[in-house]
Amino acid sequence: MDKSDIKQSVREKYGQAALQVTSGGSACCGSASKGCDPITSNLYDVSQSEQLPQEAVLASLGCGNPTALANLHAGEVVLDLGSGGGIDVLLSAKRIGPTGKAYGLDMTDEMLALANENKRKAGIENVEFLKGEVEHIPLPDSSVDVVISNCVINLSVDKDQVLREAFRVLKPGGRFAVSDVVTRGEIVPEVRQSVLLWVGCIAGAEKRTHRHGGTKNLPTHTQEG
Fold this sequence. Notes:
Blueprint (H helix, E strand, L loop, with lengths): L2 H20 L23 H4 L4 H5 L7 H4 L7 E5 L5 H10 L4 E6 L2 H14 L4 E5 L12 E7 L8 H11 E10 L1 E3 L5 H4 L2 H5 L6 E2 L15 E2 L1
Parallel strand pairs: 1-2, 1-4, 2-3, 4-5, 6-7, 6-8
Helix pairs in contact: 1-6
């Protein structure tokens, strides 16, 4: 299985999801209330979701709420890896205030267009959406206070490179808040070789391991699958 095939399949799937939202539907199959994976539903309090454009909420395909994990402060710089329709970026921007900056990084043109439209509708100025891959973050070294990610790292075929890049852009003492899918056991080779299951956040899931301390504070959260 070619790595480029996986990346292209991921790009196509999430591009289609963005177009579904743009046409008035939900990124999940069916409606916003039916047909969705329970992992991706009810992740945000009404007090959070009601202050955002409906399209940002409908485009959410995450498996957690990293903004609830990251202890954000006014004036900080935040980066969301795989920002999709922008829900976590917009929520972060509200918490860090006008003196802070929230970046969203995504490789899918349709999602970037949707995210920028959600930014416009929300009237939030301290947000910038960047086109790029999570393995190659287009930001300078030590430029970000907090990196967040919501059910995206499992989609990468080179997770070590993603983490190297996250550490590179983090400032000394920076924080890393992640919601992602992990497995309690081994994934059989047949599943690992399925492009469809990679796109579905299953084949790329890492096995759950015990956490170890590092040189930077890395609060993490995982949704087991």
